Amino acid sequence: MAGPLKSGTVKSKSNLSKKKFAIIVAEWNEEITEALYEGAVAGLISNGVKKENIIRKNVPGTFELTLGAKWMANKKEIDAVICLGCVIQGETPHFDYICQAVAYGITEVGLKSEKPTIFGVLTTLTKQQAIDRAGGKYGNKGEEAALTAIQMLNF
Fold this sequence. Notes:
5 helices; 42% helix; 22% strand; alpha/beta; Rossmann fold; two-stranded antiparallel ribbon; globular
């Protein structure tokens, strides 16, 4: 997940109006991932990114974020990729396998593409914890992911 950023704007060294961002959104836990997406878009736009430079792609679930991120990172015109998903722990170890694979996969995409590829995936124990982090009492981690992408473009 993105670091401990506050909502709002970040200092940018580059003209963000010319940068293109891909946001890959998992459709599983749609109520949560839609809220994360809205937060990410709001974070980008409030920092000068043009709405037409935000490309959204949906994937069925969090596990598929990695391949979606790879496909978008391979596009020359994309400057950064933001991956948004939500995995809520259940009764089986499925949670552990998915979370570990996705974290590793998103890291690999960033390393291989040499583009900011941001892990905006909630890994919570309950649905309420996810709601609290998707615009609830702990803010919106989608917005934090967007601000992280901007900061990494400044690196």
